[in-house]
């Protein structure tokens, strides 16, 4: 399956099948939260949070691809990601785009 952020796939004529999405809500690990809190006092990258968000994006993308697969899509165009805090210590990541079939 081809995944792109553009609204087209070069050399392909597309039939739009509809919007597909995938999401996940991730919470922080209390132990890591304490160490990352201390890290924020001195500055620098919060690697544990970066890893958590990378994993969340990957899972949201996987779920979006599964939804497109159920539509027998050949690809997904116009992919976007969004995140939001849903409660103290938890964030939602959503991936969405338009499932397409090649003509």
Automatic annotation (TrEMBL):
InterPro entries the record matches: UPF0145_dom_sf (IPR035439), UPF0145_YbjQ-like (IPR002765)
Gene3D superfamilies recorded: Hypothetical protein apc22750. Chain B
Superkingdom, taxonomy of origin: Bacteria
Residues in the signal sequence: none
Family: Belongs to the UPF0145 family.
HAMAP family cross-referenced by the UniProt entry: UPF0145
Protein name: UPF0145 protein Closa_3194
Originating species: Lacrimispora saccharolytica (strain ATCC 35040 / DSM 2544 / NRCC 2533 / WM1) (Clostridium saccharolyticum)
């Amino acid at each position: 399956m081809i995944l792109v952020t553009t609204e087209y796939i070069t050399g392909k004529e597309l039939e739009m099948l509809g919007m597909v999405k995938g999401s996940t809500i991730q919470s922080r690990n209390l132990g890591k939260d304490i160490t990352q809190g201390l890290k924020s006092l001195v500055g620098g990258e919060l690697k544990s949070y970066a890893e958590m968000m990378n994993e969340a994006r990957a899972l949201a993308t996987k779920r979006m691809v599964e939804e497109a697969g159920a539509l027998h899509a050949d690809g997904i165009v116009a992919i976007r990601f969004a995140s939001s805090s849903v409660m103290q210590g938890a964030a939602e990541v959503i991936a969405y785009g338009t499932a397409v079939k090649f003509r």
